[in-house]
Structures are given as structure tokens and as C-alpha cells.
Amino acid sequence: MKKNGFGSRFFMVLVFLFLYAPIFVLIVFSFNATKSRSVWAGFSLQWYVKLFSDATIMDALRTTLLVSAVASVIACIAGTAAAIGISAMRRRSRNIVMSVNNIPLTNADIVTGVSLSLLFVLAINIFNQTLGTRWELGFWTLLIAHVTFDIPYVILSVLPRIRQLDPNIYEAAEDLGATGPVAFRRVILPDLMPGIVNGLLVAFTMSIDDFVISYFTAGSKVSTLAMEVYAMARRKISPEINAISTLLFASVLVLLVFINIRQSRQDRLANREKSVVSIQK
Amino acid sequence: MKNRWLAVPYVVWMAVFVVVPLILVVLYAFTSRDGGFTLSNFSTMAEYLVVFGRSFFLALIATLVCILIGYPLAYYLAREGESMRRMATMLIMLPMWMNFLLRTYSWMSILENTGLLNTFFQKIGLFSLINGIFGTDITFFHMINTEGAIVLGMVYNFLPFMVLPIYTVIEKIDYRIIEAAQDLGANFRQVFQKVILPLSLPGVLSGITMVFVPAVSTFAIPRLLGGGMVTMLGDLIEAQFMGSAYNPYLGSAISLVMMLIVLICMAVMNRFGEGEEGAVVL
């Protein structure tokens, strides 16, 4: 295809500048010596030091990471199983299931959030009145909400992989004496792995990025980082928040660069093998 | 591999936590505060007609801007080499790891009257230049707490959702089709108009959905960048559920109407999109 000229490259750089300008500002001001968010007063690490003794922020960080990790793992397992089940369904029921699967994806977050909060409040009231329990909105409702909006992403990521599977391979494994579970683990699962890992990553990212649905389902006792930021934004956000985001951002960056390097190395190896094979032929 | 029952837990989960809550929204929308059936939630909504209009208008502008920036970006990206493309998609996804509220908050410090952008303009002497020419006496541009700032916040936050679907579709276009068109004598504009654009339309349509829906229902962005001066649908709904005006019945009714309008828009748009594709095939 025609390569990009100077003009189109320049355009791309401008868009990426636009995307990264606020992030750059955030990072720079996490090292600011004063509390100001727009006047630079010198380099300091004080916000990083303060951060680790701030119980509220550390609690919020723990909640965010825990709920994102647990929800994406549950969604990943349930979603993969469901994708296998869905692919075996008859066309009509599969279409119905897939339209329901699309609801959390296309619906506005705020509608998902308020509808879940209606259900939770109603269910909790009923349980509390009939069973005498004293439940309230909290970590569990937050977790259920996250699993609910994470699963559809996993399904969308795993289902295409299942369609690409050759059904004969599984039968071949069974013919060669593998029992169902073994055939699944040794033959099917490795083929699905890229889709599963991708689904897990997307689900985790969505959980980390979510604010609206958490806001309506977490109640007043627990809060995620995003909820903490929203509560602070009405007054003034402490630069500690800049510091924690910088740390999160840096760790993801390192992780992604690492994955990227590994992948391009694998690609190169695969290419070399291919060329060796073709030479031998 | 024919294990249909594997989907059972998922189907039950989705029924309980997706379908039932939506049914509750519909029920609540027709319920009065004392629990009886009512239509008054919908009639009180007439007061908020302005808010509906404003939300849909601002979301529409944000979506258009996203197409204008996102389409060329996706198109140029698809022409880059493999490693460049991988890095670029990574760079587009990466900001999501800094929660969108934080990034939006960061725009506040850029756009404020004494913020970074105005400081920058002052440093390069833009204001003295303007004051010299027009005889005015300005020391800053008023950018924060305007509808423009809200649109900027929406474009900034939702642009990746426009770029990624378009990019995925354009990247999959078989390059031989383009070459065939060129061989048959089509110039760049014709190739784009008759081959690339129609083939990338599904990506654009899903991009529009993915930008418009969160834009029309956002409540954090107008709160931060609009300074609470500009009320949007999201703010209205939020106030009914979390605010002092606690009235989940009215909140459900507003959510329901918003959902229906969005659904109708999407249905019309998809019908229109299919028609286009059909015409192209003919």
C-alpha cells in the first residue's frame, strides 16, 4: 500500500500529542513541590512518600486492583465456558443469547449502573426483611457488576477463535485415545489461548477504567480509585492521585513493552523457521 | 465439544443481572412514589426538554469531530508497517489505564483561565499581540466551563472508540481490490469513494455507536469541564439516584426515554448503512 507522506505522519503525531498531553501534564505535576496543578515550583517526591501513608487512597487502590483482578478472572473462566456452550447452540437460541450479550456493550454505562443498583437495592431490602440479614451495597455488589460487564468482552474475544477451530482435530484426539477433558486441555485450549488472554486483558482494562457503573453499585462504604478522584474533584485533587496514576501508568507501560518485545521476537523466530523449512524443501 | 450446558451459568447470570435490571427500569418508570401505576414521570420530563436537546446536540458534535479525526488516523495507521501498527494500537489503548476521570481532570489544569495553555499563550506574547492589534485588554481565553470544553472532553475520552473499529475494518481490506480498482483506471478519489469508504462503513457505524452512546449519557465530563454550569442527561439521572433529589422513578423514566431514543437512532442509522452497502453491491 502507498506509504504515508510527511503530511499524514504529521497529522498522526498531532493526534497522539492530543491524546498524551493531559497524561504528560499529570505525570509532570506528580513531581511538583507544591499542591498547585498548573504552576511548577520545583522537583519533589513528597507526593509519592505521602501516598503510601494515605490510608484512603491505598484502600481505594486495593479495592480497584482486587475487584478488577477477581472480576476479570471470573469473567474469563465463565466467558470461555459460555463461548464453547454458545457455539454448540442452535442458531436461534444463539442469536438470542448474543443479543443479550450485546446489551451491556452498547447500553450507556449509566443505564447499566442504575439498573443494577435498582436490582441490588430491591434484592437487599427483600433479603433483609425476610431473613433478618443486614446486607448493604459494598464489595460484593461491586464485584457482581464488574463480572456482568466484563463477561461480554471475553465472549466476543473467544467466540471467533472457536469458530476457527477445526472440529476434526478434537475428534482425532479422541480417536487417538484422549478422554474428553484431556483432549480439551491438550488440543482445544492451546488454540483458544490467544483469545482467552486477550479477553482477560480487555476485561481487566475495562474494569480499571470504569467509573460510572462502580459509582452506582459500590454503595458508600467501599470506593475505587476513580470514585475517590470524583469525590475529590469537587474540592481539589491531591497530587498524591497524580503520583499513584503515574505509578500505575508506568507499570502498564513496562508490561506492554515487555509483551511487545516478546511477541516481535516470537514473530521473528517463526519467520526464520518458516524460511528454514522452505530452504530445506 | 458439543457441551451446550457449559453456557448455562452464563445464561442464568445474564438473565439475572442484565435482563431483570432492565425490566426493573421499565417498571420503575411507570411507578409513582407511593407504588401505584403512573405516567406522571414522563410528563414531568417535559421540564427537561432543554437538557435532552443539549445532550443530544453536544454528543452529535463530539461524534462528528471524532469521525473527522478518527477516520484519517485509522486510515493512515492501516498504511504503516506491522511493528508501527502494533505500537500505535498499543498507544491508543494505553491511556485507558489512567482512569478517564484523571485524564479529564488533567484537562482542567490545561484549560483554566490561569492554566497551562493560557500561560503558554502569554509566554509567547499572543495576548499582547492581540491587544496591540484590536486594542483589547485580554489576559486569558475563557475555555473552561464552556460547552466547547465539554465537547473537547468527550472527543478526548471517546476518540479511541472511533479509531479502533475503523482501523480494524480498513486493515482487513484486501489490498488487491484497491489495486484492481487502480488498474481499471480509478484515481485516488474514486478508489477512496467507491472502494475504501463503503468497505469501511461498518467500522464507522460501530464507531459512531461507541462514541455517541457514552457521550450522550456522560455525567462526569460536564461536571468537571463544564463546572456544573451545564446540565446534561447523565447529571439529571445521577441526581435522581445519588443526589438530594432522590427519585429513582423519575430517574428510571429518563433513562428509559434516553435508551429508546438512542435505540431508534441506531436502528435508523444501521438501516441507512445497510442500504448504502446494498447500493454498492449493485
Question: What name is given to the CATH topology of one domain in chain A?
Answer: MetI-like fold
The top-level CATH class of chain B is Mainly Alpha
Number of strands of chain B: 0
CATH architecture of chain B: Orthogonal Bundle
* Helix/strand/pairing category of chain A: mainly alpha
Question: Total helix count of chain A?
Answer: 11
CATH topology of chain B: MetI-like fold
Provide the succession of SSEs of chain A. HHHHHHHHHHH
Multimerization state? heterodimer
Overall outline of chain A = globular
User: What share of residues are in beta strands of chain B?
Assistant: under 5%
Give the number of helices of chain B. 13
pLDDT < 50 runs, ≥5 residues of chain B: 275-282
- Structural class by helix and strand composition of chain B: mainly alpha
The low-pLDDT segments of chain A are: none
Task: State the shape of chain B.
Answer: globular
- Main sheet properties of chain B: none
List the main descriptive attributes of the protein structure presented here.
heterodimer; A: mainly alpha; MetI-like fold; 11 helices; globular; B: 282 residues; mainly alpha; 13 helices; 75% helix; disordered C terminus
